[in-house]
Design a protein that fits this description.
Elements (H helix, E strand, L loop, with lengths): L1 H26 L21 H14 L4 H24 L2 E10 L5 E3 L2 E3 L4 E3 L3 H13 L2 E10 L4 H18 L5 E2 L2 E2 L4 H19 L5 H19 L3 H21 L8 H18 L3 H7 L1 H14 L10 H7 L4 H25 L3
Antiparallel strand pairs: 1-4, 1-5, 2-3, 6-7
Length: about 350
């Protein structure tokens, strides 16, 4: 049964991605990157997460009697609908920001960035805009273009939306009050809310390079499914198998160079679905460890926003790209770390009976 679910999710998502990509191109629903290094991706169809949602939905139709599948799919649909709204809002630019190049013989400082000779950067912050006037007057930089900055909800508005999504799971009553073996009673509710919000933000943040988020989710979901099966919890494995199959199929088109981008439609849906499957299957700890890479990335971003550490660009994978690592190498490294961590965690939990 497990392999059949994977095949259905994989094949259906594969076919839906082909259809959705053509439809998005026809409707001219395409990406307009704000990261200057990603300007070549302009025109790539976005909101590709619709294909993942359709693939998961069709897979669930074959297993409509399984509660974990139904509720996980419902949560992904709720997250996907909110993601669609966010993606549609982001299609219209809020402003156009200048892109500058260092033409001086030495490094220059603009905003929080240090531009080496010949390097380019987007002038985003108020400090960077003030610095630009001085640098232009001194002839140290030149403006080489402009990039659009997408409209979008504020952080607190996004968190509120993610909170609302978590209420869908709480309303089902299916999550129960036992978390990690402890009966928390009513206090399980804030834990569930935190889990859903955290997972959505983790996946959303890591979705910044071709194939990065779906690749990590495919590996982490496959690992969570294997862990559940090894522990005799077949029901817990089913949603993870479906998510893994859908992500692997989408990855065919989303790997570098991507011909379709999943957008918030996909990242919010996957974040909500992954957390829901982990909560319903009572494997929260393992599934959380499997997402070590994006979780660490979020922690680094938080430290940056608090002013504790410095980054050239946020989040971490953009800093690595800025420092010279290619997008393919960064994505591969993140995938491999996720795979190694997942295998090691299965070994520690199962073989050593931790």
């Amino acid at each position: 049964m497990e392999i059949i679910i994977f095949i259905i999710a994989f094949v259906s998502t594969l076919l839906f991605t082909i259809f959705v990509r053509k439809a998005l191109k026809f409707a001219e629903i395409t990406d307009n990157p704000t990261i200057s290094e990603h300007r070549h991706k302009a025109g790539t169809p976005t909101m590709g997460g619709l294909a993942i949602l359709l693939g998961i939905l069709l897979t669930t139709c074959f297993y409509f009697t399984n509660k974990n599948m139904i509720i996980t799919t419902m949560m992904m649909m709720a997250g996907g609908l909110f993601g669609i709204m966010d993606d549609l809002i982001g299609l219209k630019p809020k402003e156009f920001q200048k892109v500058v190049k260092n033409i001086y013989s030495d490094s220059v400082y603009i905003g929080k960035l240090t531009l080496k000779v010949g390097e380019e950067a987007r002038v985003a912050t108020a400090k960077a805009k003030r610095d630009l006037k001085k640098l232009l007057a001194e002839g140290k930089v030149e403006i080489i273009g402009k990039v659009p900055v997408k409209k979008g909800a504020k952080e607190r508005q996004k968190i509120f939306v993610h909170f609302v999504i978590s209420l869908f799971l709480i309303a089902t009553g299916a999550a129960g009050s036992t978390i990690l073996g402890f009966n928390l009673g009513i206090f399980a509710i804030p834990v569930i809310i935190f889990g859903i919000i955290g997972s959505i933000n983790v996946v959303n943040l890591i979705d910044g390079m071709d194939g990065l988020a779906p690749g990590i989710l495919a590996i982490a979901s496959a690992a969570s499914a294997i862990f559940s099966i090894l522990n005799g919890n077949i029901n817990a494995s089913l949603p993870f198998i479906a998510i893994s199959g859908a992500c692997f199929a989408f990855l065919i088109f989303n790997r570098y160079p991507a011909t379709i981008i999943m957008g918030d439609t996909g990242s919010i849906a996957l974040g909500a679905g992954y957390a829901t499957a982990a909560i319903l299957g009572n494997i929260i700890l393992f599934s959380m460890v499997a997402l070590t890479v994006p979780i660490i990335s979020v922690m680094i971003s938080l430290l940056y926003r608090l002013g504790i550490i410095k980054l050239a660009v946020e989040p971490l994978h953009h800093t690595l790209h800025y420092r010279g690592l290619s997008e393919r190498k960064i994505t591969f490294i993140y995938w491999m770390i996720t795979l190694v961590v997942s295998i090691a965690t299965i070994y520690l939990f199962k073989v050593l009976s931790l």
